[in-house]
Design goal:
Number of helices of chain B: 6
Largest interface: A-B, 25 and 33 residues
Strand content of chain B: 25-35%
Largest sheet of chain B: 6 strands, mixed
Shape of chain B: globular
Number of domains of chain A: 2
Structural class of chain A: alpha+beta
Helix content of chain A: 40-55%
Structural class of chain B: alpha/beta
Strand content of chain A: 15-25%
Helix content of chain B: 25-40%
Distance between the termini of chain B: 25 Å
Distance between the termini of chain A: 35 Å
Order of helices and strands of chain B: EEEHEEHEHHHEHEEE
Radius of gyration of chain B: 18 Å
Strand order of the largest sheet of chain A: 5-6-4-7-3-2-8-1-9
Oligomer: heterodimer
Shape of chain A: elongated
Number of helices of chain A: 13
Largest sheet of chain A: 9 strands, mixed
Strand order of the largest sheet of chain B: 6-7-8-3-9-10
Order of helices and strands of chain A: HHHEHEEHEHEEEHEHEHHHHH
Radius of gyration of chain A: 29 Å
């Protein structure tokens, strides 16, 4: 290793030799960097999974434009939209179809644990608004009290869900009615519920008698192929006389929801801060290690200064140490971080996983912040005055 | 130019502190070190020996008077010039000041690599050779912690001499050593200086060293009070 670095730098790898001279301290420093990495990985993982969990329900649907109430920051948030706007929107030449979407959480008493399913009430005659995986089963919902169940929902045994077929349905009680699942789809637990469920709008309204068919939560619109979504949105703004409504492309709606979760909701802010604190902890640990190391070697550095070594040489040593710590601390950090995220993902069914982009960005961040720590630590170098040696 | 010594000091004054606390440490010091000479600078502690050494060694800025080192005036010289000049000097300190994380050979290599552009193999060979000259050929891979005090100081001598400096400045190199080790280190300095034509200036108040000197300068209260030529 030492030889390799020597060939690489064209000089003795003093930083490496200094760091590895005291094995215990070196191990502690690496553990510190790894710990900061794990902290950032876990927080980032949760933050990413929150994003993925937020976007997941949008993935069940296919639409070009979504009309929502002004206060509907998230899919299952805010007031409802009058159905009359759906009819109004249909007047636009580019709008080919529209569907009201109802959303509410349905509790399911599973004995030892109640689970809550985010339930979408959809029009079973309009499979075009659902992704192909679900669309094929949509006509099953024409039967009153029929549902399509999320087979990845928390609290639902995998074998139990896998057995659900039109010929072997699963019935359960909820909201005083007997619901029957004839098919399943792949959803997964999120932050707002343990899983998802699809029902016809009629079934939905009988589950929630207080809701009216004239007021769905959102309106989904499909456009003629090749139509310009932005222009249509602009036209709809003029066509629909209620200025408080949010009319935006479906993908914009998903992204706005994501931004809202990340920047306005406490969970997003908390995990965002978690990442920040992980970065700061790493910064402080590397700075502490490097500045202690500089302080411990002031005499040697002063000697080198007296011998004629210039400031670049000393900066080189400190940066070399910063890089060694950053790179070698990252490896165990990545391994532990991956393990923790995998285990947490299994337990929570949240989409928690180490992604390559996460690993790369944390690695680059580690190198960057190690270098910043190193740059701060080099300020102590000026204390090495060769005149004090005599 | 040839008439000029390796070091010419003329009318050197130096002060420490500032304002009311300002104290003059050197008064009109004049001295010349001839090429290849072995000069001992003596004097009680606080007499200014070390100040003279650090001024000649480009480790302090010259305030008043003239110090010419290797033909270059130090008074008013830029930091980069001082750093470049320091590379042509060899320093030996009271403590060995070896780097604890580097082996004996690596410590000596530091004295070669400061000049830059030296291939690793060449630097290593030079270091091994220099350690051989100070009698440590079998200790090249030892860390300083595993060497005796005398051995460490010999490594420091090898580090100072490995790049064939024009001038070696040594500040009480024998203070921390027992009688035999001290004699060994001084003999080494003297012998290698003679072999390579190196000029040596050694600060000490160790009387054991005096009989090896060509010339003894005595400093008292910042003034040169005695010059004794020998040999």
């Amino acid at each position: 290793m030492s030889r390799l670095l020597q060939a690489l730098f064209g000089r003795l790898p003093i930083g490496w030799l200094q760091l590895t001279h005291n094995r215990t301290r070196f191990a502690a420093a690496l553990a510190g960097v790894a710990f900061a990495n794990v902290l950032v990985f876990v927080q980032l993982g949760i933050m990413n999974s929150m994003g993925a969990a937020t976007l997941r329900p949008y993935g069940f649907f296919q639409a070009d434009i979504m009309i929502s109430a002004g206060d509907a920051n998230a899919l299952a948030d805010g007031g409802n939209v009058a159905r009359q706007w759906l009819l109004q929107a249909m007047a636009d030449p580019d709008v080919t179809d529209g569907m009201g979407l109802f959303i509410a959480n349905v509790p399911w008493d599973r004995g030892e644990k109640d689970i809550s399913l985010t339930t979408f009430g959809v029009d079973p005659a309009k499979p075009g608004f659902l992704v192909p995986e679900i669309a094929g089963d949509l006509k099953l919902l024409e039967v009153q009290d029929a549902v399509i169940l999320d087979r990845l929902a928390r609290g639902l045994a995998r074998e139990e869900a896998a057995a659900i077929r039109p010929q072997s349905p699963l019935s359960f009680e909820s909201q005083g009615r007997t619901l029957t699942a004839y098919a399943t789809f792949a959803g997964g637990g999120g932050f707002g519920g343990d899983g998802y469920m699809l029902a016809s709008d009629q079934t939905f309204l009988s589950l929630f008698p207080a809701r009216r068919s004239a007021a769905p939560d959102h309106i989904l619109l499909a456009l003629r192929p090749g139509a310009d979504v932005g222009l249509t949105v602009a036209r709809l703004h003029k066509l629909i006389s209620d200025p408080s409504l949010r009319i935006r492309s479906f993908s914009d709606a998903a992204q706005e929801d994501l931004r809202y979760q990340q920047t306005k909701r406490p969970t997003g802010i908390i995990f965002g801060f978690g990442v920040l604190i992980g970065v700061l902890v790493g910064l402080v640990i590397v700075y502490q290690v490097l500045s202690t190391d500089v302080a411990d070697h002031l005499r040697e550095y002063a000697t080198f200064k007296a011998m004629g070594y210039g400031p670049r040489f000393f900066l080189g040593i400190v940066f070399e140490e910063a890089l060694v710590l950053g790179i070698m601390g990252f490896v165990p950090g990545l391994m532990v971080g991956t393990t923790i995220l995998t285990v947490m993902g299994k337990i929570t069914t949240l989409p928690l996983a180490m992604t390559p982009s996460m690993a790369v960005s944390v690695f680059l961040g580690t190198i960057l912040f190690s270098a910043v720590s190193g740059a701060i630590a080099t300020r102590r170098l000026s204390a090495a005055d060769p005149a004090d040696l005599f | 130019m040839n008439r000029e010594g390796i070091v010419d000091v003329k009318g050197l004054n130096h002060w420490f502190g500032s304002g009311e606390a300002k104290k003059q440490a050197l008064f009109d010091v004049n001295l010349t070190l001839k090429r290849g000479s072995f000069t001992v600078l003596m004097g009680p502690s606080g007499s200014g020996k070390t100040t003279v050494l650090t001024l000649i060694g480009c480790l302090r800025a010259v305030q008043d008077g003239s110090v010419r080192l290797l033909g270059q005036e130090l008074n008013g010289a830029a930091e980069a010039e001082l750093v470049a000049l320091r590379r042509r000097l060899g320093f030996i300190f009271q403590a060995h000041n070896l780097h604890e994380s580097l082996t004996a050979a690596q410590n000596v290599m530091m004295g070669v690599q400061v000049h830059g552009g030296v291939a690793d193999r060449v630097a290593e060979q030079a270091a091994t050779h220099a350690l051989g000259l100070v009698g440590l050929a079998d200790r090249t891979t030892y860390l300083p912690a595993n060497l005796s005090g005398g051995q460490k100081q010999r490594v420091a001598v090898a580090r100072a001499l490995v790049a064939s400096p024009a001038l070696v400045l040594a500040d009480e190199p024998t203070a921390a050593l027992d009688k035999d080790s001290a004699a060994e280190v001084v003999d080494l300095l003297k012998r290698m200086g003679e072999a390579r034509g190196t000029t040596t200036m050694l600060v000490t108040h160790d009387n054991r060293i005096l009989d090896r000197a060509d010339r003894i300068l005595t400093l008292e209260d910042g003034r040169i009070v005695g010059i004794e030529e020998r040999g």
